[in-house]
Design brief:
The complex is a heterotrimer of chains A (199), B (370) and C (558). Chain A has 199 residues and is mainly alpha-helical. Chain A has a domain at 66-199: Cytochrome c oxidase, subunit III, four-helix bundle (Four Helix Bundle (Hemerythrin (Met), subunit A), Up-down Bundle). The radius of gyration of chain A is 22 Å and the shape is elongated. Helices cover 72% and strands 0% of the residues of chain A. Chain B has 370 residues and is of the alpha+beta class. In chain B, the strands form 3 sheets. A 6-stranded mixed sheet of chain B has the order 1-9-6-2-3-4. Chain B has a 5-stranded mixed sheet with strand order 5-11-10-7-8. A two-stranded antiparallel ribbon of chain B has the order 12-13. Helix content of chain C is 66%, strand content 0%. Chain C is built from 16 helices and no strands. The longest helix of chain C is centred in the N-terminal third of the chain and has 35 residues, at 70-104. The radius of gyration of chain C is 24 Å and the shape is globular. The chains are: A mainly alpha (199), B alpha+beta (370), C mainly alpha (558). At the B-C interface, α1, α2, α3 and β10 of B face α4, α8, α9, α10 and α11 of C.
Amino acid sequence: MTNEATIAVGQNALDWKLPSSRKAAIICLILTETCIFSIFVAAYVFYIGKSLTGPTPREVLDLPILSTICLLSSSVTITLAERAFNRDRIGRFKIFWLATIVLAAIFLASTAVEWHRLIYQKGLTISTNLFGTTFYSLVGLHASHVIVGMCLLLLVFILSLRGHVNIMHRERLQMISWYWHFVDAVWIVVFTVVYVIGR
Amino acid sequence: MIRHSKREENSLNRAATPARTQAPVKRLRCRALLSFAALVFIVAGHVHPAFGNPAQVTNLLQPLSQPAQEIKELSMLVLTICATIFLIVAGLLVYAIVRFRHRPGDEASEPPQIYGSNQIETAWTVLPILIVFVLILVTSRTIADIQDRKAPPGAIHSTVVGHQWWWEIRYPELGIVTANELHVPASDGNRRQPTFLNLESADVAHSFWVPQLAGKTDLIPNRENRMWIEPTQPGTYLGNCAEYCGMQHARMLLRVIVQPPAEFEQWVKEQQQSAFEDASATEGRKIFFANSCVSCHAIRGTSAQGTFGPDLTHLMSRQTLASGAAPLSHDSLRAWVHDPQQLKVGCLMPNMQITDKEVDQIVTYLETLK
Amino acid sequence: MAAQEISLISSAPPRSSLIDRLHGLVVTVDHKKLGLMYIGTALLFLVVAGLMAMVMRWQLAIPNNHLVPPDVFNRLFTMHGTAMVFLVGMPILAGLGNYLVPLMIGARDMAFPRLNAFGYWMFLFGGLLLYFSYLGAPGLSGHGSAPDVGWFAYAPLTGRAFSRGHSTDYWILSLLLTGIGTTVSSINVIATAVSMRCRGMTLMRMPLFVWMMIVTNFMILLVMPALSVAQIMLLIDRYLGGRFFDTQAGGSALLWQHFFWIFGHPEVYILMIPGFACVSEIVPVFSRKPIFGYPVMVGATTMIGLISMGVWAHHMFSVGMTSTGNTFFAISTMLVAVPTGIKIFNWLGTMYGGKIHFEVPMIFCLGMLFQFLIAGLTGIMLAVVPFDWQLTDSYFVVAHFHYVLIGGLLFALFAGFYYWYPKAFGRMLNRKLGLWHFWLFTIGFHLTFDTMHIPGLLGMPRRIYTYDAGRGWETLNLITSLGALVQAAGILCLVINLLRSLKKGEVAGNDPWDAWTLEWATSSPPPEYNFETLPVVRSRRPLWDLKHPEDPDWKYEG
């Protein structure tokens, strides 16, 4: 197939660099997930103030300060974990990775506590009114993404405990961390829309 | 950028390619014929609304009211522009096919390998944008003119509520409730009396479409839509529900009866009266009120105040039964009361399991509701 | 002894049994096999959904017909539409993309072969789930529980109150499954095109087919969520008491429409652009010239992708939006016609000055060009909002979109089949049968869909299971239905051709069409690894450069 007419400029194997397929795939995934969240956010915003009955956001929502701090800090810890991993400091990596998992778990527990309060004390369920429906769907969708992320993080953690994670997996870890940063960024949006604007 | 390739063409590697001198041109003639036939068909369809009872043909290009007339004028302009574009582009296509077809025996060279032309490509970008600009101007003007029309004093106001699968028609200012037929006065130069409709729905989405009077507007639950008509010719105009609303969407038919103003006034007076009391139908009346008919139907002036089904106060003044499922006659009314599911399967009036004798008596009673 | 040994070490591979071959398909991650599986399965669904259309046309051929009761008819049009869009259109484009993109960019497979397989099986099971609804409670005798809410399933008709039973749930769940398959396939195609191009193939040297696949798949990533999310919301309404579309609780029926059409309009471009992709590859080869205006074609396709995200409410002109809203969407809809028109002109420009060979792929492309032109023009008519107030939800619109999807897309896909079948199977499709297919299908298509515009103009709404005599619709519907029979005959020719040519077709060789893109540089069918050595390219037409070493493209491409 190759002959003089088609040989590309330069024989250097390094001058034909294409983006990594993993990065391309994760970016596509994040793009499509962004659209998923956008639709739920659009429904939430559309229905602000339109509930016919039932508790309003102002009446029942408290600012989730603790969970927000935890989740956003987990972005910091996962970055630190990555940096440690790239410098081959696996011990440090494991600590920060675990910290990320713990912070995520606190976020989820906090969400669970809040939902318990909303359902049993404030009487707000998914079928109560438009606010209930849009609130639980949006926050729930985000929480489900946190759960998935946590599962990925746990998997990596367990594998690293068994010594199966090494420098060859650098890019895969990076992809997981990108996903995690995405989940955190979504929380910023959800927080703003639900707890700041919506109230 | 143009250049010429003088080397021998690497001919198509397949031995079995016989020379086809006649075929391309014949093919072309066939295609041209087909397109022409299609064009004739479409034009003929417009000019002569093919077959069917002329009184019942609802050709939207033969409107008899505003805003349908204004829509038609706009659409004629659009059709002309589109037809012109079609003739030009299709003509170019045919020309290219004929002129630049490969002639057998001409294997010598590839044609000039042209990659593009900035001037040509700019031209055929700018021209469509100009056409679009013109279309947008006329379109937005007509949209505003029709949609933002305000009701003049003296306009008739009616509320149409869509149900599965019938139309509830109310005239709040006149105190009238009826079903499936909208009566409106004809409007003329001296006395402009358009009818403004509020459109609501009791269940799912429907759409009000009487092509010769206006474009369609949807009836959406939890939303009030608004439209208007201003017919000038008395007559009966047929329409359909035009948004799929379930099983009997096809039989949710509509009639708009345009009457001269005097006749319309007469109709209003008749409709405003309570139901006639007719001594001859006491048996049927008793059965009607004893059965659960009254839980769905209303008859003004009696204790029947049901709102789930059509108002029956002046049932016999209507032309059809069950929103157009059948013309209103003794037989169809009898069949309906006996078993509505036979005439309109799936409709929400169940078979009431009434004996034949009782059916007759009920029908006798209903026929007094003039 | 020696003779025995030799016979044991026979050089010819043992003929694989049917079971082996089927097993091979089940476990394969080879993009070529999966691509063909996508297309083959889609063609099966095409036949089934097409037969449903035939039944509908029979029911509508005469007024007040009693062939099928209303509930069966309503299921037929719902299933026909849903299947054609999601089980025929989408998989064919996935199949074409998966088969051709790696070959065209000089790669050995897709970026994520196992993900590819996953996407196919999601599609297959989603499709089977949709049709399983016919058997799901109450079962065969009760015509099953197939969805009957129309392919766009407007709320609140789909709510628990109005759609009892599980028919709507089948619609939701099967499309959620196929939606996942579609989304992962899109991620795969984009990642492949971005990261696996052979040396020298810059983005502006990719075949237009690959560019159009990239645009299509980006659109899928952006808009598929709108549908999937709306369906999840509907599921929440139906099962968890949610209020998303519950008008009694203040919910909005229009919100469903907005979400659906935010997906639905780009969806029809997603369906159509692969058709453009086929035409953009075929017309140059059979005009013996490069595509006219490659950069503009790329730009126009991208513009179509972008603008089409902003036209969705032209499906909602009759719901009572404000005049400003209506005007905005009229403008955007007319604007999207500009790049689309530009593409027609560029194809014309490609043919102009060329030497047109009337092979079957080219003949289908020519038909496509005429028909897509007409379809685009009726689209412009529909963009004129007041005219749309008359035409929407009538048979005019039904005629319009079938003109686009059959007259435009299907003809382009047929062209693609005749063009690439030799590559996939090593044998040519029979030309004579191909011409029979073309002419029967074209005549039937025009009989049906040209005529169908007229009942729309005469006030016939869509989705009605019957109509009264006297409206002027009778003869027109009869002609429309007869055309369907002729189209079916055309499809029969295609099916016979596809099957027969597998064994009896003329051997194709590597490059039967004297074409210029990389897929023709390998054997037909390609080996599993696609290319012996990965190619290196210097222009958009690497095979032209090879065949014309004294006059290569890279000297002239900017």
